[in-house]
Amino acid sequence: MTSQVSSPAEHTDGSVVGEQRKPDGAKDVRRLDRVIIRFAGDSGDGMQLTGDRFTSETASFGNDLSTLPNFPAEIRAPAGTLPGVSSFQLHFADHDILTPGDAPNVLVAMNPAALKANIGDVPRGAEIIVNTDEFTKRAMQKVGYAASPLEDGSLDGYQLHPVPLTTLTVEALKEFDLTRKEAERSKNMFALGLLSWMYHRPTEGTERFLKSKFAKKPDIAAANIAAFRAGWNFGETTEDFAVSYEVAPAARAFPVGTYRNISGNLALAYGLVAASRQADLPLFLGSYPITPASDILHELSKHKNFGVRTFQAEDEIAGIGAALGAAFGGSLAVTTTSGPGVALKSETIGLAVSLELPLLIVDIQRGGPSTGLPTKTEQADLLQAMFGRNGEAPVPIVAPRTPADCFDAALEAARIALAYRTPVMLLSDGYLANGSEPWRIPELDELPDLSVQFAQGPNHTLADGTDVFWPYKRDPQTLARPWAVPGTPGLEHRIGGIEKEDGTGNISYAPANHDLMVRTRQAKIDGIDVPDAEVDDPHGARTLVLGWGSTYGPITAAVRRLRAAGEAVAQVHLRHLNPFPGNLGAVLRAYDKVVIPEMNLGQLATLIRAKYLVDARSYTQVNGMPFKAEQLAAALKEAIDD
Questions:
Q1: How many Å apart are CA 436 and CA 567, to the nearest integer?
Q2: Distance between CA atoms of 242 and 279, rounded to whole angstroms?
Q3: What is the pLDDT of residues 74-96, one digit of tens each?
Q4: Cβ–Cβ contacts within 10 Å for residue 521, how many?
């Protein structure tokens, strides 16, 4: 879904913009500048689909948005239980926003478990829509409700809307030849229709989607569309919803361009395809399915027409082995995984360091250790990416900051890998991978030139005048060795994990040569050309907040709150974590206090303290969820006042 934007950026604040009454006694319409909605229910209730469709229509309408899907690790978690609750939060606005929001203005709870699991996040005065049909005595007892929360007064501080969603859906579909159980499955579409009416969302896209999704089952498509329309009509006719809401398009929040809604994994996949086209190389993905990285494999498998070849291997080791073989053969090679897979791939990453071949290792981080929290987010693989191999095996590290930024991060990782002949780690995470936001589709002339030159013939002259090919003779600027495609006459050379002799590439156990090769590989990484760190400090602050990866949104939102309250705070956000930007040391030493929020126990802070001898303060969280802006603002205010 794309939309055109043709106005300069502008930021606004506030919540309620105005209220108007429609003529002829119609319902009131209240104008808002932003709304946070959370859909919650069993993992089988279709909450992710419901949220995704609402998001797509919101994107097509032109709002800025940010999403937070949250679901169990089990394919079908126990129905009606707290661990089985799946939710989808969407923050949309008429101005630029940075996070999915701290707390929902509207909670749609499909059952007692969904209500109990989420009510703690809902502020007083917010709207709660509950499916009363599911509030049976047994269902409430399953999650610890001794009495019905709909009747005991515990929800008196909220705007409660009890709606028999299941009954209304079944009634709306009685003309279809469906069993009651089949009809009940469409209750999420009824809820979607109701919320679409409440917030004046477009409906055409959802109806097209349902026709396409159930193209082979037209009766099911028609039933879902009927449920969707019934939800819309219910909102229009019931007296329980006296007000609907309008959130204007964010026309002034973006630069001119064509936009679409995009998730982090989709943006990353598109970035990899774009990188292969800009390098004029075939793209090869060797991968083993693992949450939350599997969507990249799914997406890239659709793009054979762009020269993409995907290989679903039998395990993580085979996946990266195939990818490294493809790199040796002249492809832009990629392997995708999460933290547990990086551990299995570590030996082959070390081999890629020794062979000095371009290879992208995409790590979509999740909660650990071991299997950990497969569907929750974390930033705890930084030290693994930096040091998780035997021997001195340095690897560049690149981290995107937002879902849309995953596209640019993929291009940057490819640039480094191709120019410096090295494996590169790209650290995304589950929050970025599954979350979404508007993305301006770039023009082709905005993409970097990633073209490479393969070795074509001899590159060294021996003392006797013989011209030979030395596979480890280096470019004086990048220290990259030649990339020699197998089968090119005269370029035969040894490969393998045993130490190479400088220049010739022959096996060498010489102590001095090993020392030279180790230091040269490190110097190559240290010498990678990365941009200086950009400092956002409009007020001459004494406190700097330093972040990396997906903490960008919450940190920036917190910084905005503090500045709006009159506080001076500076911000730097890192994309390049190895090597660090050349000016980072000077930037850090220019501030009295440095605070580093991370979704780990302080891994970047450890690196910063060790390298720059700066007394950086950690602010950490490892609960599987992203930071909240209010939470970070309070922590930063405390640091400023300390």
A1: 30
A2: 57
A3: 877 888 999 999 999 999 999 99
A4: 20
